[in-house]
Design goal:
With 316 residues, this protein is of the alpha/beta class. The protein folds into two domains: 2-152, no CATH class; 155-316, no CATH class. It has helices at 29-33, 46-49, 81-94, 131-139, 154-176, 180-189, 191-195, 199-209, 217-232, 238-249, 258-272, 279-291, 295-298; strands at 7-11, 40-44, 59-62, 69-72, 98-103, 115-118, 124-128, 145-147. The chain has a four-stranded parallel β-sheet. The longest helix is centred in the middle third of the chain and has 23 residues, at 154-176. It is elongated and about 75 Å long.
């Protein structure tokens, strides 16, 4: 997958680069040992890049949550806010073609959210995003972003990686040339994936797609992808997945005997109740569709949204 250019921005320390304030790193074994097989990482350390040095004085966020300053912990006269903001804006222009970004949790520069913000008296008072991360995310509101700590949550991990692959497919489609027919095909192939997140949003997207050919293409594409990526950030619950699985089973109703139908329904119900992971009904559906191929279902990304080797659905 890396050969296909799925570029992911990442905090350098997570790859094992010794760029931390203490000269160390925060190498993440899941990122370097698993995700590195599928993504091309683009490492950035804004604190080192703006000249704070390695090792360097520790910094923290101070002031208001909506616009905190980045100051030294021991030396409050050290204020690197303007340099950090300028660097973030510079990198927005340089980090082209990204399909996602993994930030360092808790960092005053790279934290995605819930970074402590201190009062002038040195007391933690509220929280915000790191100043560099804020610039990246503000300039790329649809870019899938996550923190390495949150990737330990199976649902958040699967959600992030799914969004990366969807965003990659969308950008490739745009690069090829977005036509009405290609938009319809893209939406059709993502139908059940979208429905697992939000049924009403799926219907709204369908209405947008129906305007293809009669609405300004750029305006339509912007509205569609904004709704798509926003929808995919929503939690896909067991109930929603089970409903999608039952819909897919409908394509098999003329082919399965009573015993096979009963087994499939029981498996989906067991998943819905939390007694089986998602991969079990998925594998059973794949088995039946191999025996009874359906061209429409074969084109659905829902059954294979990301490389199976990542085993993301084995624990959902």
């Amino acid at each position: 997958m890396a050969d296909e250019g799925i570029r992911i921005g990442i905090s350098s320390c997570l790859l094992g680069e010794k760029v931390r304030y203490d000269g160390g790193h925060k190498k993440d074994n899941y990122i370097t040992g698993t995700l590195a097989d599928y993504f091309e990482f683009v490492p950035v350390c804004p604190e080192a890049a703006i000249g704070l040095g390695i090792p360097r004085p520790t910094i923290r966020l101070v002031g208001a949550a909506e616009a905190p300053r980045v100051r030294g912990v021991k030396d409050a006269s050290l204020d690197v806010t303007d340099r950090m903001v300028a660097y973030g804006r510079e990198m927005v222009g340089r980090l082209t073609g990204l399909r996602g970004y993994i930030f360092k949790r808790g960092s005053p520069s790279c934290g995605m959210e819930r970074v402590k913000v201190y009062t002038e008296q040195g007391m933690p008072n509220t929280s915000s995003a790191g100043v560099y991360a804020r610039e990246i995310m503000a300039a790329n509101p649809l870019l899938p972003c996550e923190e390495e700590g949150r990737l330990g949550d199976p649902m958040l991990r699967e959600n992030f990686i799914q969004r990366v692959f969807v965003y990659d497919r969308w950008l490739r489609l745009v690069d090829e040339g977005l036509t009405a027919g290609r938009l319809v095909d893209f939406h059709t192939r993502h139908k059940y994936m979208i429905r697992a997140h939000d049924e009403s949003a799926y219907r709204e997207m369908g209405r947008l797609v129906a305007e293809a050919g009669s609405r300004d293409p750029a305006e339509l594409a912007g509205a569609y992808v904004t709704l798509l990526m926003t929808t995919l950030t929503k939690r896909a619950t067991r109930k929603k997945h089970a409903n999608v699985l039952m819909h897919l089973m409908g394509y098999l109703k003329k082919h399965l005997d009573a015993a096979d139908k009963a087994e499939l329904i029981e498996t989906i119900d067991e998943y819905r109740a939390g007694r089986l992971p998602l991969i079990v009904p998925i594998v059973l559906l794949r088995h039946h569709f191999r025996r009874h191929p359906n061209e429409y279902v074969a084109d659905q990304y829902y059954l294979d949204p990301h490389p199976r080797e990542l085993m993301l659905r084995n624990v959902l």
